[in-house]
Amino acid sequence: MTEERLVVWAQAVQRADEIAALGHHPADSWDGRAIRGVLAVTLLVLATRQKRPVEEVDTGSALWHLAQGPTMVYELGDGLQLAADVTRAEWAWLIRSWPREPSLANSDGMPRGIGRGSPLPAVDVVTHWAGSAVQAALATERPAGLTPRTRVQVIGGEDEGRTGEVVAPAWLMDDENRTVMAGPPTGYEVVFTIPPGQGVARRAVMPIRDGEIRIEAPGSHGEHVIIRAKDLEPEEPVSASQ
């Protein structure tokens, strides 16, 4: 039984690594380990609940659970009591708190970018990022139409005439079956472009060795909005002669 649990955990880690790789977070970083850990735990527990191999867990099901936030991941973690020792050790790492200082202690000696300096457990910090990685995986499985960073214009609805950039597909959730509705996305998350001269100050905090500095810079992008797929089309490129 112990050997079987180790095999299933290894399969969950392998699939988590494949999904996380789409997000370009190195496995030897704090970010990469945390994201892969959350994904592996999610896949393992869903496989156990659904009585199917890890590789057959629906990507949409994983996305639905991660979209519910860290509380759902903690609930999934409650199902690890009978898991292999290595699995429970990884879960303990995912739910531990972190000292703010020194920086190496805050990152377990690894490079860290997400939530740097935060004392919160990895589950609280990276669940959204893990969900984004699963979104990318789902987009490779289903024709998503418009890819991230595609310049688009709105051709219908209350935002007609505005332009922006695709951030990600917006999948319709099937709450009854705890998965994502079949088929292509019904809409897209779009960040609108702000017309020249109307840019608002974008505030950012940059950590430095002795603390942090706060800066303001004019941002070229405005609010994020979900737009129905039928109300979007790729923006025509501007001719070089114009």
Write a short abstract of this structure.
With 242 residues, this protein is of the alpha+beta class.
Tag the structure with descriptive keywords.
242 residues; five-stranded antiparallel sheet; alpha+beta; 9 strands; 7 helices
Describe the protein's topology.
Layout: H1 2-20, H2 30-50, H3 59-67, H4 70-77, H5 85-95, H6 103-106, H7 122-141, E1 151-154, E2 163-170, E3 173-174, E4 179-180, E5 187-193, E6 201-208, E7 211-218, E8 221-228, E9 232-234
Antiparallel strand pairs: 1-2, 1-9, 2-5, 3-4, 5-8, 6-7
Helix pairs in contact: 1-2, 2-3, 2-5, 2-7, 3-7, 4-7
3D architecture notes:
Strands 8-5-2-1-9 form a 5-stranded antiparallel beta sheet, with helices on one face. It folds into 2 domains: 2-141, no CATH class; 151-234, no CATH class. Mean pLDDT is 86; it is low at 201-219. A hairpin with a 2-residue loop joins β6 (201-208) and β7. The chain has 242 residues and is of the alpha+beta class. The protein is globular and about 60 Å long. It is built from 7 helices and 9 strands, in the order αααααααβββββββββ.
